[in-house]
Amino acid sequence: MDFQSCVKINREWDIVGARQIGREHAKKIGFGTVDQARIATAISELARNIYLYADTGKICFEIINEIDRKGLWILAVDNGPGIADISQVMEDGFSTSGGLGAGLPGVKRLMDQFDIISETGKGTEIRTVKWVRK
Amino acid sequence: MAKILHVSDKHVTIYIKIRGKMQHGGKRMDKHLNSIVINNSDTIVKDWLVEVSKNRHNDYTSAISEDLFESTNREFVNVIFSSLEKQGITSELDDFSEKLINLGWPLSYLTDGLQAFRRVTINFILSQSEKVDSDHLSKVLDMVDNWVDPIINQLVNEYSGSWEHIVSLQRVALQELSAPLIPVMENITIMPLIGTIDTERAKLIMENLLEGVIKHNADVVLIDITGVPVVDTMVAHHIIQAAEAVRLIGSTCILVGIRPEIAQTIVNLGIDLGKFPTKSSLRKGFQAALEMTNRKIVHEKGSDEGIESLLDSLNGE
């Protein structure tokens, strides 16, 4: 699938850039302020994970326009070390960097759909969708 | 190697360094080409103006008025020629680039202009030459490159230098704004946070907070996050750590300015902020801080007589 816009994550400030673009998309589609904040926070978590663990990667956005529903698709891709045990990182309170360990499980709760594919040594891809509530 | 090259009665003698390539190029040949260009400057300038005006309407300069564009082009070409005559970087070039930087002209105007100048000049010289063999061609290319490249380099350096300068100034300005601490009352201080919090800023917040608590002898510190757009786990983590550190030195931290949407994302993320008090607004936080320090806001009886009669009438009901 072709993504409309992608933001490269190389430095800490790129997280802010990704967040801003995501928020703009969310506003355009018609998300309310609470959902906009949820989306911005989710992007922030995903982008920070890329910056912290994989050094570089990208966040892509795609607006989903179906007959009966609209939504925002967010894709986070990196070529980092990958995640050895996915069930472990999806547990609340697990962190290798001394953080709160709420990042990925938090994103899952903030968004409506959440898929994670990761291979050790190859990288991680997270696909997540938020639907506009009617 | 320094040498006096071109001394005209109008111009002050200048010393310039001859670049390595030109030393091998044969000075007579260079001089010859040089004079071709200078003697035919009118034709070259005319060709160049045509070339530059071509991309006028489809790019960055389309918003600039016709007059300004023309006069800048004239000035630009004069600057190029004066640096050709003197075979080096001139003070005119410095002044010109400084002026354009201040006016906010894009760098691409200058580089495109010089690229066009290179094309026009090479074409002109070749059209004037009787025989064109590869040796001659490479000499001409070398020669023109030696004129144009130093100018391009100089301009790019000036522009990037000015950008770097601006960025470093803004970084300093940002740092000054990043973690202010305001002692509003005896034992109560407020730290208003506005904008994105990154790791560097989080460190500053922690340092300023602890330093300020000791310095102002504060019992209660209010951290106001009304202006923080996104509170993710990293920001929350830093706030929790700062509050914990404040607790260790014997003071209390109250987190204020939590907007409804931020409250919801914090709950979704599963962040536990239960270890210290939180309030929705700075006003409520301040009231709580007063209570903690055994004070309260007392409304003095105003000169309004109406209030008293109103209270009386309420009591009567």
Topology, pairings included?
The complex is a heterodimer of chains A (134) and B (317).
Chain A: E1 5-9, H1 12-29, H2 33-54, E2 57-65, E3 70-78, H3 86-89, H4 103-110, E4 113-119, E5 123-131
Antiparallel strand pairs in A: 1-2, 2-3, 3-5, 4-5
Helix pairs in contact in A: 1-2, 2-4
Chain B: E1 2-4, E2 15-17, H1 20-24, H2 27-39, H3 41-54, H4 66-85, H5 91-103, H6 107-128, H7 134-178, E3 182-185, E4 188-194, H8 199-215, E5 220-227, H9 233-248, E6 252-256, H10 260-269, H11 282-292, H12 305-316
Parallel strand pairs in B: 4-5, 5-6
Antiparallel strand pairs in B: 1-2, 3-4
Helix pairs in contact in B: 3-4, 3-6, 5-7, 6-7, 8-9
Walkthrough of the structure:
The complex is a heterodimer of chains A (about 130) and B (about 325). Helix content of chain A is about 40%, strand content about 30%. Chain A is α+β, with helices and mostly antiparallel strands and about 130 residues long. Chain A has one domain: Histidine kinase-like ATPase, C-terminal domain (Heat Shock Protein 90). In chain A, strands 1-2-3-5-4 form a 5-stranded antiparallel β-sheet, with helices on one face. In chain A, a hairpin with a 3-residue loop joins β4 and β5. In chain A, α1 runs antiparallel to α2 and α2 runs antiparallel to α4. The longest helix of chain A is centred in the N-terminal third of the chain and has 22 residues. Chain A is globular and about 40 Å long. Chain A starts with a strand and ends with a strand. In chain A, about 35% of the residues are buried. The mean pLDDT of chain A is about 90. Chain B is an alpha/beta fold and about 325 residues long. Chain B has 2 domains: about 170 residues, Globin-like; about 110 residues, STAS domain (Transcription Regulator spoIIAA, 2-Layer Sandwich). Helix content of chain B is about 60%, strand content about 10%. Chain B contains 12 helices and 6 strands. In chain B, the strands form 2 sheets. Chain B has a 4-stranded mixed β-sheet, sandwiched between helices. A two-stranded antiparallel ribbon of chain B has the order 1-2. In chain B, β4, α8 and β5 form a beta-alpha-beta unit. In chain B, α8 packs parallel to α9.
